[in-house]
Amino acid sequence: MRQSPANRILILMKTEGPQLAAAIGDALGISGEAARQQLAKMAEEGLVEPITVATAGRGRPRQLWHLTAAGNRQFPDGHAELTANLLGTLVEQLGSEALDTVISAREAETLTRYRQELERADDLATRIEALAAIRTREGYMADSWKQADGSFMLVENHCPICAAATVCAGFCRSELETFRAVLGARVERSEHILAGARRCAYRITPD
Hints:
Elements: H1 5-16, E1 19-20, H2 21-28, H3 32-44, E2 48-53, E3 62-67, H4 69-72, H5 80-94, H6 96-118, H7 124-137, E4 142-146, E5 152-156, H8 162-167, H9 170-183, E6 185-191, E7 200-206
Antiparallel strand pairs: 1-3, 2-3, 4-5, 5-7, 6-7
Helix pairs in contact: 2-3, 5-6, 6-9
């Protein structure tokens, strides 16, 4: 199904960050003016807004467009409010140990499932690529690539369990440990959505 220009812009900003109108036009195959008209319409709907950024030297300031909170809510949130309420009730009624048990069980199930899907990946690069594909399927809008120094990056542009992770940081810890176990490599989180970053990013190096 063909996506509307607005949806394509939302996805572009979600995966690539703030954009110039001209860059959006290039990505969509339309003129910069047409892109600005589309952005103005989306701004009226509260989905995007511009930020003026000063340039080095005497150049004119540039206007970067980025997603608003409403724009970010266009992406799946995994039933955020219900999830947060359920976790809060679980801790209130059964204690934090019960939540730890749930997280551990989820981690074990996820690790087993990921290992089964990656069993034919016989090198680190292939495992990372396959893991990114799995995470994208699960709603994380993931991507991966190899860097010039030989390390790898795994990036997740969206977090469908953000509400759960906000209530309990154990979910983020669990995912990091799962990545390390399934990849058999050193994995360090370099960007974190819950810390205010636009995305979660992981630097991966062989053990």
